[in-house]
Amino acid sequence: MQVITFTPLYMERVWGGRELEQVYNRTLPAPNTPFGESWEMTDRPDEQSVVNHGPLEGMTLGQLWQEKREEIFGVGFEDEECFPLLIKILDARDDLSIQVHPPADIAPELGGEPKTEMWYIADADPGAKLYVGMKEEISRDDFQQAIENGTVDQVVHAITPKAGDSIFIPSGRLHAIGAGLLIYEIQQNSDTTYRVFDWNRMGLDGQPRQLHVGESMRCIDFTDSEPSMDKPNGNTLATCPYFQVDRLKLRVGASVGNPDPERFSIVTVVDGALESADGRKYVAGDFLLMPRAAAPLTASEDASILQTTIPR
Protein backbone atom coordinates (compact mmCIF):
# COMPACT_ATOMS: atom_id res chain seq x y z
CA MET A 1 0.00 0.00 0.00
CA GLN A 2 1.28 3.46 -0.91
CA VAL A 3 1.12 6.64 1.16
CA ILE A 4 -2.18 8.54 1.14
CA THR A 5 -2.40 12.28 0.52
CA PHE A 6 -5.33 14.67 0.97
CA THR A 7 -6.50 17.97 -0.50
CA PRO A 8 -5.94 20.72 2.09
CA LEU A 9 -8.87 22.74 3.41
CA TYR A 10 -8.07 26.47 3.69
CA MET A 11 -9.68 28.60 6.41
CA GLU A 12 -10.04 32.38 6.29
CA ARG A 13 -8.81 34.05 9.45
CA VAL A 14 -8.55 37.73 10.38
CA TRP A 15 -4.94 37.09 11.45
CA GLY A 16 -3.95 35.02 8.40
CA GLY A 17 -2.02 35.79 5.22
CA ARG A 18 -0.72 34.30 1.97
CA GLU A 19 2.48 32.58 3.12
CA LEU A 20 1.22 29.15 2.04
CA GLU A 21 1.24 30.52 -1.51
CA GLN A 22 4.70 32.02 -1.17
CA VAL A 23 6.51 29.35 0.83
CA TYR A 24 4.89 26.16 -0.48
CA ASN A 25 3.78 27.31 -3.93
CA ARG A 26 0.16 26.41 -3.18
CA THR A 27 -2.87 27.72 -5.02
CA LEU A 28 -5.17 29.38 -2.49
CA PRO A 29 -8.93 29.42 -3.14
CA ALA A 30 -9.43 33.19 -3.42
CA PRO A 31 -7.19 36.20 -4.13
CA ASN A 32 -6.55 38.92 -1.55
CA THR A 33 -8.03 36.78 1.24
CA PRO A 34 -6.18 36.08 4.51
CA PHE A 35 -5.93 32.32 4.97
CA GLY A 36 -4.70 31.52 8.46
CA GLU A 37 -5.13 27.74 8.55
CA SER A 38 -4.62 24.84 6.20
CA TRP A 39 -6.30 21.72 7.57
CA GLU A 40 -4.14 18.92 6.21
CA MET A 41 -5.92 15.96 7.83
CA THR A 42 -9.32 16.34 9.44
CA ASP A 43 -12.24 14.08 10.27
CA ARG A 44 -14.75 16.61 11.62
CA PRO A 45 -18.51 16.52 11.01
CA ASP A 46 -18.38 19.64 8.81
CA GLU A 47 -14.79 19.42 7.55
CA GLN A 48 -13.51 16.28 5.85
CA SER A 49 -10.15 15.68 4.19
CA VAL A 50 -10.54 14.03 0.78
CA VAL A 51 -7.97 11.66 -0.75
CA ASN A 52 -6.51 13.28 -3.89
CA HIS A 53 -4.58 10.43 -5.53
CA GLY A 54 -4.56 6.69 -6.13
CA PRO A 55 -7.19 3.95 -5.81
CA LEU A 56 -8.81 5.63 -2.78
CA GLU A 57 -9.17 9.02 -4.52
CA GLY A 58 -12.41 10.77 -3.57
CA MET A 59 -12.87 8.99 -0.24
CA THR A 60 -12.92 11.12 2.89
CA LEU A 61 -10.73 10.53 5.91
CA GLY A 62 -13.90 9.72 7.84
CA GLN A 63 -14.85 7.04 5.31
CA LEU A 64 -11.40 5.51 5.51
CA TRP A 65 -11.72 5.43 9.31
CA GLN A 66 -15.15 3.79 9.23
CA GLU A 67 -14.66 1.39 6.31
CA LYS A 68 -10.96 0.51 6.23
CA ARG A 69 -9.83 1.20 9.78
CA GLU A 70 -7.74 -1.87 10.54
CA GLU A 71 -6.41 -2.19 6.99
CA ILE A 72 -5.11 1.39 6.83
CA PHE A 73 -4.67 2.56 10.43
CA GLY A 74 -3.93 -0.68 12.22
CA VAL A 75 -4.87 -2.25 15.50
CA GLY A 76 -6.05 -0.80 18.80
CA PHE A 77 -8.43 1.89 17.53
CA GLU A 78 -11.68 -0.01 17.95
CA ASP A 79 -13.07 2.45 20.51
CA GLU A 80 -12.25 5.62 18.56
CA GLU A 81 -15.35 7.03 16.86
CA CYS A 82 -13.35 9.16 14.43
CA PHE A 83 -9.75 9.75 13.32
CA PRO A 84 -8.18 10.97 16.57
CA LEU A 85 -5.92 13.75 15.25
CA LEU A 86 -6.30 17.08 13.49
CA ILE A 87 -3.23 18.27 11.56
CA LYS A 88 -2.81 21.88 10.42
CA ILE A 89 -0.45 24.51 9.07
CA LEU A 90 -0.97 27.91 10.72
CA ASP A 91 0.04 31.12 8.94
CA ALA A 92 0.00 33.96 11.44
CA ARG A 93 0.57 37.37 9.84
CA ASP A 94 -1.11 39.06 12.81
CA ASP A 95 -1.41 38.01 16.46
CA LEU A 96 -3.94 35.28 17.24
CA SER A 97 -6.31 35.76 20.13
CA ILE A 98 -5.06 34.82 23.59
CA GLN A 99 -6.93 31.61 24.23
CA VAL A 100 -7.17 28.30 26.06
CA HIS A 101 -8.49 24.82 25.30
CA PRO A 102 -10.52 22.94 27.94
CA PRO A 103 -9.01 20.09 29.97
CA ALA A 104 -10.72 16.70 29.76
CA ASP A 105 -12.30 16.98 33.20
CA ILE A 106 -13.90 20.37 32.44
CA ALA A 107 -14.75 20.16 28.72
CA PRO A 108 -18.01 18.14 29.11
CA GLU A 109 -19.41 20.65 31.60
CA LEU A 110 -18.79 23.46 29.10
CA GLY A 111 -20.13 21.56 26.10
CA GLY A 112 -16.72 21.41 24.44
CA GLU A 113 -13.99 18.92 23.59
CA PRO A 114 -10.59 18.64 25.30
CA LYS A 115 -7.67 19.69 23.14
CA THR A 116 -3.96 19.11 23.66
CA GLU A 117 -1.61 20.11 20.86
CA MET A 118 2.00 20.74 19.90
CA TRP A 119 3.58 23.36 17.65
CA TYR A 120 6.59 22.97 15.39
CA ILE A 121 7.99 26.30 14.16
CA ALA A 122 8.41 25.93 10.40
CA ASP A 123 9.42 29.57 9.86
CA ALA A 124 9.76 32.66 12.03
CA ASP A 125 10.23 36.32 11.18
CA PRO A 126 12.89 38.07 13.31
CA GLY A 127 11.39 38.97 16.68
CA ALA A 128 8.17 36.97 16.20
CA LYS A 129 6.71 35.86 19.52
CA LEU A 130 4.65 33.14 21.11
CA TYR A 131 2.56 33.98 24.17
CA VAL A 132 2.49 31.00 26.52
CA GLY A 133 1.54 30.80 30.20
CA MET A 134 1.64 33.58 32.76
CA LYS A 135 4.33 36.02 33.72
CA GLU A 136 5.91 35.28 37.08
CA GLU A 137 3.70 35.96 40.10
CA ILE A 138 0.51 36.74 38.13
CA SER A 139 -2.43 35.47 40.16
CA ARG A 140 -5.96 34.62 39.09
CA ASP A 141 -7.13 37.95 40.52
CA ASP A 142 -4.39 39.82 38.65
CA PHE A 143 -5.50 38.15 35.43
CA GLN A 144 -9.16 38.98 36.03
CA GLN A 145 -8.19 42.62 36.57
CA ALA A 146 -6.19 42.59 33.30
CA ILE A 147 -9.26 41.31 31.43
CA GLU A 148 -11.34 44.16 32.84
CA ASN A 149 -8.63 46.69 31.94
CA GLY A 150 -7.98 45.30 28.44
CA THR A 151 -4.34 44.64 29.34
CA VAL A 152 -4.12 40.83 29.17
CA ASP A 153 -1.14 41.16 26.79
CA GLN A 154 0.86 42.66 29.68
CA VAL A 155 0.48 39.65 31.99
CA VAL A 156 1.07 36.82 29.49
CA HIS A 157 4.57 35.36 29.12
CA ALA A 158 6.26 35.93 25.73
CA ILE A 159 8.86 33.71 24.03
CA THR A 160 10.87 34.45 20.86
CA PRO A 161 11.21 31.11 19.03
CA LYS A 162 13.23 30.23 15.95
CA ALA A 163 12.59 27.85 13.06
CA GLY A 164 13.00 24.25 14.23
CA ASP A 165 11.82 24.93 17.78
CA SER A 166 8.77 23.20 19.21
CA ILE A 167 6.49 23.46 22.23
CA PHE A 168 3.83 21.25 23.80
CA ILE A 169 0.51 22.97 24.60
CA PRO A 170 -1.50 20.86 27.04
CA SER A 171 -5.15 21.73 27.53
CA GLY A 172 -5.42 24.46 30.15
CA ARG A 173 -2.28 26.32 29.00
CA LEU A 174 -2.99 29.94 28.07
CA HIS A 175 -1.45 30.68 24.67
CA ALA A 176 -1.38 32.74 21.50
CA ILE A 177 0.67 32.68 18.31
CA GLY A 178 2.20 36.03 17.44
CA ALA A 179 2.53 37.64 14.03
CA GLY A 180 5.23 36.36 11.69
CA LEU A 181 5.11 32.62 12.43
CA LEU A 182 4.45 29.61 10.21
CA ILE A 183 3.61 26.59 12.36
CA TYR A 184 2.82 22.90 11.97
CA GLU A 185 0.19 22.00 14.55
CA ILE A 186 -0.55 18.43 15.65
CA GLN A 187 -3.52 18.16 18.00
CA GLN A 188 -6.33 16.06 19.32
CA ASN A 189 -9.35 15.95 17.03
CA SER A 190 -11.11 18.90 18.65
CA ASP A 191 -12.14 22.38 17.55
CA THR A 192 -12.97 23.90 20.95
CA THR A 193 -11.21 27.19 21.64
CA TYR A 194 -12.07 29.77 24.28
CA ARG A 195 -10.82 33.28 23.51
CA VAL A 196 -10.10 35.42 26.54
CA PHE A 197 -8.53 38.46 24.79
CA ASP A 198 -8.35 39.51 21.13
CA TRP A 199 -6.11 42.57 21.22
CA ASN A 200 -9.17 44.88 21.18
CA ARG A 201 -9.57 44.39 17.40
CA MET A 202 -12.41 43.76 14.95
CA GLY A 203 -13.13 40.55 13.01
CA LEU A 204 -13.37 40.17 9.23
CA ASP A 205 -17.01 41.32 9.47
CA GLY A 206 -16.02 44.56 11.20
CA GLN A 207 -17.45 43.45 14.54
CA PRO A 208 -15.59 42.45 17.73
CA ARG A 209 -14.97 38.71 17.78
CA GLN A 210 -16.78 36.67 20.42
CA LEU A 211 -14.89 36.17 23.68
CA HIS A 212 -15.41 33.36 26.19
CA VAL A 213 -14.17 34.89 29.42
CA GLY A 214 -16.15 32.74 31.84
CA GLU A 215 -15.20 29.50 30.11
CA SER A 216 -11.56 30.59 29.86
CA MET A 217 -11.32 31.37 33.56
CA ARG A 218 -12.61 27.86 34.30
CA CYS A 219 -9.94 26.27 32.10
CA ILE A 220 -6.73 28.29 32.54
CA ASP A 221 -3.91 26.74 34.57
CA PHE A 222 -2.79 29.73 36.65
CA THR A 223 0.24 27.80 37.97
CA ASP A 224 1.72 27.63 34.43
CA SER A 225 4.38 30.31 34.85
CA GLU A 226 6.92 31.40 32.22
CA PRO A 227 7.42 28.13 30.29
CA SER A 228 10.19 27.90 27.69
CA MET A 229 10.38 26.19 24.31
CA ASP A 230 10.83 22.42 24.65
CA LYS A 231 14.11 20.55 24.45
CA PRO A 232 13.96 17.34 22.37
CA ASN A 233 14.38 14.03 24.16
CA GLY A 234 16.55 12.34 21.55
CA ASN A 235 14.41 12.44 18.42
CA THR A 236 11.18 12.99 20.35
CA LEU A 237 9.76 16.51 20.36
CA ALA A 238 6.50 15.76 22.18
CA THR A 239 4.77 12.73 23.64
CA CYS A 240 1.47 12.33 25.48
CA PRO A 241 -1.38 9.79 25.45
CA TYR A 242 -2.78 11.35 22.27
CA PHE A 243 0.27 11.58 20.01
CA GLN A 244 4.04 11.35 19.77
CA VAL A 245 6.02 13.56 17.40
CA ASP A 246 9.59 12.71 16.42
CA ARG A 247 11.96 14.71 14.24
CA LEU A 248 14.20 12.65 11.96
CA LYS A 249 17.01 13.64 9.63
CA LEU A 250 17.50 11.44 6.55
CA ARG A 251 20.50 11.36 4.23
CA VAL A 252 19.99 10.74 0.52
CA GLY A 253 18.99 7.12 0.01
CA ALA A 254 17.85 6.57 3.60
CA SER A 255 14.34 5.25 4.09
CA VAL A 256 11.63 5.64 6.69
CA GLY A 257 8.70 3.35 7.50
CA ASN A 258 6.19 3.07 10.30
CA PRO A 259 7.90 2.68 13.71
CA ASP A 260 5.17 0.22 14.71
CA PRO A 261 4.52 -2.10 11.74
CA GLU A 262 0.99 -2.73 13.02
CA ARG A 263 -0.02 0.96 13.03
CA PHE A 264 -0.04 3.98 10.76
CA SER A 265 2.04 7.15 11.03
CA ILE A 266 1.93 10.65 9.56
CA VAL A 267 5.06 12.01 7.88
CA THR A 268 5.50 15.77 7.48
CA VAL A 269 8.31 16.96 5.20
CA VAL A 270 10.08 19.90 6.87
CA ASP A 271 12.76 20.27 4.20
CA GLY A 272 14.42 18.21 1.47
CA ALA A 273 12.47 15.63 -0.49
CA LEU A 274 11.09 12.09 -0.14
CA GLU A 275 10.00 9.63 -2.80
CA SER A 276 7.46 6.83 -2.54
CA ALA A 277 7.77 3.43 -4.18
CA ASP A 278 5.40 4.51 -6.95
CA GLY A 279 7.74 7.36 -7.91
CA ARG A 280 5.84 10.30 -6.39
CA LYS A 281 7.96 13.06 -4.86
CA TYR A 282 7.12 14.94 -1.67
CA VAL A 283 8.66 18.24 -0.55
CA ALA A 284 8.48 20.76 2.31
CA GLY A 285 4.95 21.28 3.56
CA ASP A 286 3.63 17.90 2.39
CA PHE A 287 1.73 15.71 4.88
CA LEU A 288 1.58 11.98 4.18
CA LEU A 289 -0.51 9.27 5.81
CA MET A 290 1.52 6.06 5.87
CA PRO A 291 -0.88 3.09 6.17
CA ARG A 292 0.11 0.20 8.44
CA ALA A 293 1.50 -1.81 5.50
CA ALA A 294 2.93 1.13 3.55
CA ALA A 295 6.15 0.67 1.62
CA PRO A 296 8.96 2.82 3.08
CA LEU A 297 9.64 6.33 1.81
CA THR A 298 13.14 7.12 0.52
CA ALA A 299 14.99 10.43 0.79
CA SER A 300 15.73 11.66 -2.73
CA GLU A 301 17.50 14.64 -1.12
CA ASP A 302 18.80 15.13 2.40
CA ALA A 303 15.58 15.63 4.35
CA SER A 304 14.21 16.59 7.73
CA ILE A 305 10.81 15.18 8.67
CA LEU A 306 8.34 14.97 11.52
CA GLN A 307 6.79 11.59 12.16
CA THR A 308 3.59 11.50 14.21
CA THR A 309 2.34 8.31 15.83
CA ILE A 310 -0.25 7.44 18.47
CA PRO A 311 1.21 5.62 21.48
CA ARG A 312 -0.31 2.27 22.37
TrEMBL record:
Q: Name one Pfam family in it.
A: PMI_typeI_cat
Query: Per UniProt, what is one GO molecular function of this protein?
Result: mannose-6-phosphate isomerase activity
The record's SUPFAM superfamilies line, in alphabetical order, gives: RmlC-like cupins
- Which named protein is this? Mannose-6-phosphate isomerase
Q: Which organism is it from?
A: Oceaniferula spumae
Which Gene Ontology BP terms does the record give? carbohydrate metabolic process
Keywords, in A-Z order: Isomerase, Metal-binding, Zinc
Write out the catalytic residues in the record: R195
Q: How does the cofactor attach, per the note?
A: Binds 1 zinc ion per subunit.
Note the Gene3D superfamilies from the entry. Answer: Jelly Rolls
Give the protein's cofactors: Zn(2+)
Q: What positions does the domain Phosphomannose isomerase type I catalytic occupy?
A: 7-106
Q: Where does Zn(2+) bind?
A: H101, E117, H175
